[in-house]
Hints:
Structural class: alpha/beta
Helix content: 25-40%
Distance between the termini: 39 Å
Amino acid sequence: MKKICLIATGGTIVSKDGGSGLEPELTPQELLSYVPELKGIAEISVRELFRLDSTNINPQHWEKMAGCIREEYGDFDGFVVIHGTDTMAYTAAALSYLVQNSRKPIILTGSQKSVYNRDTDARRNLIDAFCYAADARSHGVYIVFDGTAILGTHARKTRTHSYNAFSSINCPEAAVLQEGRIIRYFEPECAGEVRFYGNMNPRVLSVRPYPGISPEMLIRTMDCYDGLVIECFGTSGIPAYGGFDAAVRAWAQAGRAIVATTQVPHEGSDMSVYRVGKDLMDLGLLEAFDMTPEAVLAKLMWVLGNAGSRVELERMFSERVWMDTFRE
């Protein structure tokens, strides 16, 4: 029987309503007691790192999760991370960069309703996550939720209440799970030995332009950040009025790393199509192509935390990690 490490971080799945709204209260042991079927799937050991609503998860917590996996990596066959749904896609992307080429599965799951409820998706998600983690063919970082396995770099929460909370963006679902049976659609390969990273630089600003946006925020905050993510209109549209484009140029000239992505969920960016994008290509903007905004933000934080030079930064961001882009 496979040895799986359960890493608990909180979330709805372990929450109760104490009168002021849901908040994480159940211990991991209490959680497991609600799903006795797990004893027949794997030998489970528990590490509780935090008991947080995922709204309060930040890059320091990502580093601690990756550190825990690194510390326990030699003793377990796989990992299941219990996590709240609201920021789970960010954490899945971050772990994809912090723990690369893992030949052991790192599975994130949670639920839309607490395991404490009678009518809940928690039990199925837990069983599916452990089944996937205990399968010999599983490796790398995934979210397993509502019967699907999604690459950690392509998951996005797209529903606030429904059980099928997550969608796979610009990438097929890797697998579906049906009563313990795993039907795989594709399996990314691990190239090389597992690599662990420990640093994330949270000094990244993400800006979503809107019609009428002022450059004032960019101008006033530049000294507070080392990187900027611009969620462009359409394929690459960055406003050229009101000095917004000039503010972007100022960030680039100050040596800040800038990534252009798109507000549109599907099909990705292409800075070469329209003049409103091409006019800024001389700044050395990095392009996200078909990456999710969650993956873009996590990757830029990872790159800024680990690159030793501008050349290395551009190389690290451009290299495909855990199939975070399908564009060659």
